[in-house]
């Protein structure tokens, strides 16, 4: 932003450019969300009007209640919560020890192992769908949330973020704990994890949001409609559901993750910047 205003110019010009940029960015991100929220409260006939109305001419907030009842969203919310919470728990249980081992235990070929993990991020997800599905089918995990938990367990990006944070932890604190007789498990549980709350909050939010909005993998795993997640269920209802009810369902499905980010956005920013500067 400072490059938009030449050095030596008045602070007023810099403040003006900052305000304008902030307004533009806010409108770009917030306007589509606000449009969907308001459109869900319009009658279906009004949604088809040309030109479209910005505010509903006839307000129908009860559309949200009707969408919840008609599509039985409570069932699919519960299914999605089970998938998201399980994925989060399994991912932390696998990735935290892996990142700690790569950061502090310095295994042989540790850099090569991390490099191979990061290489998996370059592979298109579609390439892995068929072999992963066949593996899950052979294990008898179809229509079972464990299939989604296991898929999210080993996440190379999460391991990388955690390792980078663990690398920046003060060595003096860890050495003092070792002198007091703490083993590696005690050191991880009682020292490293309490110091790592910012980055744990970040990877937790990433894990929950990714599991909440995932579509392709739940679509393949859950052939039983009663076990499907929100993203899959809403797609199944779309052809036979009025547009305003569909929009209401989309808003309700998105509200938890949007609220989660708004509540923990400070932790996300702190976690992403923590450990970036030594000293």
UniProtKB/TrEMBL annotation:
Task: Give the family this protein belongs to, as stated in its UniProt record.
Answer: Belongs to the binding-protein-dependent transport system permease family.
Question: What's a Pfam family this protein contains?
Answer: BPD_transp_1
Organism of origin: Saccharothrix variisporea
**What residue ranges are annotated as transmembrane?**
12-38, 76-101, 113-134, 146-166, 187-212, 245-264
UniProt subcellular location: Cell membrane
| SUPFAM superfamilies linked | MetI-like
Every ABC transmembrane type-1 domain range: 77-264
Q: Topology versus the membrane, per the UniProt entry?
A: Multi-pass membrane protein
Entry protein name: Carbohydrate ABC transporter membrane protein 2 (CUT1 family)
Alphabetical list of InterPro entries matching this protein: MetI-like (IPR000515), MetI-like_sf (IPR035906)
Q: Which GO biological process annotations does it have?
A: transmembrane transport
Q: Which domain of life is it from?
A: Bacteria
Q: Per UniProt, which keywords does this protein have?
A: Cell membrane, Membrane, Transmembrane, Transmembrane helix, Transport
Q: Name one GO cellular component term.
A: plasma membrane
